[in-house]
């Protein structure tokens, strides 16, 4: 196994077993539900947004290791970011996981989330790792519908 594969597995397992920012958020003023009917991932993303900034962000629900780890890393990365920074990170993350496998990964802009580049080899797993991100983006955009990856 390569070092990157080992790191990927280590981070995914850690964030799955010990998800950061997991649970309800009493100060939330925006919440969105995300559901992947094919695999059963079902998450809720809760955000406290004020003055154009993501002051707090949590998630709760159940899902596969990739889904939970992605939500955990996302919430850690977005806390304290401006709406514009959150939207750019969403766009960068989505572009990375949906890009051709041969495309290089910009680790500087994505940090630890660059480990999810490996899912682009498995299109069904892309939906798992983007579910929380789509729910977050929907919350920022003010869309009240349940987010589905289908």
List the helices and strands and how they pair.
Elements: H1 3-17, E1 30-36, E2 41-50, E3 53-62, H2 65-78, H3 83-98, H4 107-110, H5 123-141, E4 147-148
Parallel strand pairs: 1-4
Antiparallel strand pairs: 1-2, 2-3
Helix pairs in contact: 1-2, 2-5, 3-5
Named CATH architecture: Alpha-Beta Complex
| Counted beta strands | 4
The number of distinct helices, counting runs of at least 4 residues, comes to 5
Helical fraction equals 40-55%
Low-confidence runs (pLDDT<50, min 5 residues)?
Answer: none
Instruction: Tell me the radius of gyration.
Output: 14 Å
Describe the 3D structure.
By secondary structure, the protein is α+β, with helices and mostly antiparallel strands. The chain has a single domain, classed as Alpha-Beta Complex (Sufe protein. Chain: A), CATH 3.90.1010. It has helices at residues 3-17, 65-78, 83-98, 107-110, 123-141, and strands at 30-36, 41-50, 53-62, 147-148. The chain has a four-stranded mixed sheet, with helices on one face. Strand 2 and strand 3 form a beta hairpin. Helix 1 (3-17) crosses helix 2 (65-78) and helix 2 (65-78) runs parallel beside helix 5 (123-141). The longest helix is centred in the C-terminal third of the chain and has 19 residues, at 123-141. It is globular and about 40 Å long. It starts with a helix and ends with a strand. The relative contact order is 0.21.
